[in-house]
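agent> Task received from the user: take the single chain below, predict its 3D structure, and emit structure tokens. No templates, no multimer pairing.
agent> Plan: (1) validate residues, (2) run structure prediction, (3) serialize to tokens, (4) report one or two observations.
agent> Step 1 OK, no nonstandard residues flagged.
tool_call: predict_structure(input=
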Amino acid sequence: MKQMKILISNDDGVSSLGIRTLASAAINNGHEVTVVAPDKERSATGHGLTLQNPIRVEKANEFFPDGIVSWSCSGTPADCIKLALSELLKTKPDLVLSGINHGPNLGTDIFCSGTVAAAMEGTLEGLPSMAVSIACYQWQDFRGASRIALEIAEKALISKWPSSLLLNLNVPPCDPEKMGPLSWTRLSIRRYEEQFCKRQDPRGSTYFWLAGELVKDLESAGDGPKKWPSDVAQIEANAPSLTPIQPDLFWRGLIEDLPEIKPVNQPVR
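)
tool_result: status=success, residues=269
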């Protein structure tokens, strides 16, 4: 594999262990690495952009091994990729990586994910992009996931990587030799019960915590080959899940299933 220029971001913050491990693995593989990541945790920010405040950046090379150029950004994960591609990088990268996220990004939760949003920003710019997550909040060893992610990305770039394709990789919390085989997967439909917890502060005012309990559903999944497992089922089987995603959200069901609508703004007769 020839040397690549890799841009890396995340939503856990520039100093988090996941991004430091991934960036170190990439430079050890002989690639040129630039990191542009949030200055603090920005989880569940989705594809939010900063419009009402200035975005500030400063060098953060102290978090990474020699040879890695790193920037800390006050914006969202999507801001980080936009700013990197528009202002901070002299040339476009060959690959955008986002992660490694501390916790899963499975199913329809990707709509809330800052990790996936950073990768999606690369996809929207026509760049090969991958989001990488460890499917556990307690697991602290990101080396195996880094090796798997880089191997997938390098092989995909050698073969074929369509310009509209985002790869969403979730890795189970165990050593690679204990994992099942990697598989393509479909996105699950994630559901939660009692999403808000209602409380009162000492002054009697009501406030809410978003704290829903996840309903574990191994079967539900959307579009894709029916023989593919859902991403949740794949992780439950202790195997890495790789889901192909694209920015196009257009309805793929039957036209006949759309609700009937009447013409609007027609002159009254």
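agent> Step 4: summary for the user.
The CA atoms of residues 218 and 233 lie 5 Å apart.
agent> Done.
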